[in-house]
Amino acid sequence: MKYNELVAISGLSGLYQLLSTKSDGAIVKNLDDGLTKFVAARSHNVTPLDSIEVYTDTENVRLWDVFMSFKENEANVESLDISKLDNKKVQALFGTLFPAYDKDRVYVSDMKKMIRWYGILKKLDLLNVTEEVESESTEQAEG
C-alpha cells in the first residue's frame, strides 16, 4: 500500500485505501477493519491524504510533513489518546506534536482527525515510507 492510495471520506471516520474509482463514486477499503465498500460521490467527498495541507504561520505544509513532525515529537507527549481530552488539551497536544501550526485557522476537530489518522498510520506501519513520498513529491515538482 502506498501513501498516495490513502484517502479520507467526508462523513466517515478513519482512513481508507482507494481501490478503484467509478463515475458515481469509489471503492475503498477501511484500514481499521479491512472491509471493502462503495462510497457514492453524491453523498461523500473522497480526499487523498497527499492533497491535504495544514495552515502554518508562514506557508501551508503537506499533511505528510505534519505526520513526520508528529513522529519526531511523539516522545515529548505522554499519550496520543485524545478520547478523554477537552479542546484545550487537544490544542496543547497538537502544539507539542506540530508547533508551527496556525492557531487561528486550524480547528480542534481537524487536529483530532490528524492525531487519529497518525495513530492509524503508525499502527499499520505506514509512516516508514518517507523515501517513497519524498521521491514522488520531487518528481511532481520537476515534472
Description:
There is one protein chain. This protein is α+β, with helices and mostly antiparallel strands and 143 residues long. It folds into two domains: 3-49; 53-128, Arc Repressor Mutant, subunit A (Orthogonal Bundle), CATH 1.10.10.1650. It has helices at residues 63-73, 87-97, 108-123, 130-142; strands at 6-9, 16-22, 25-30, 36-40, 46-48, 53-54, 61-62. Strand 6 and strand 7 form a beta hairpin. The relative contact order is 0.15.
What is the gist of this entry?
The protein is an alpha+beta fold and 143 residues long. Helices cover 36% and strands 20% of the residues.
Poorly predicted segments = none
Using the alpha-carbon principal axes, give the shape.
globular
The name of the CATH architecture of the largest domain is Orthogonal Bundle
**Structural class label:** alpha+beta
Total number of beta strands: 7
What count of structural domains? Answer: 2
Number of helices: 4
Portion in helices: 25-40%
Mean pLDDT: 89
Order of helices and strands: EEEEEEEHHHH
The main sheet comes to:
5 strands, antiparallel
Radius of gyration: 16 Å
- The largest beta-sheet arranges its strands as 4-3-2-1-5
In whole angstroms, the N-to-C terminal distance is 23 Å
Stated plainly, the CATH topology of the largest domain is called Arc Repressor Mutant, subunit A
Mind telling me the CATH class of the largest domain? Answer: Mainly Alpha
Strand content: 15-25%
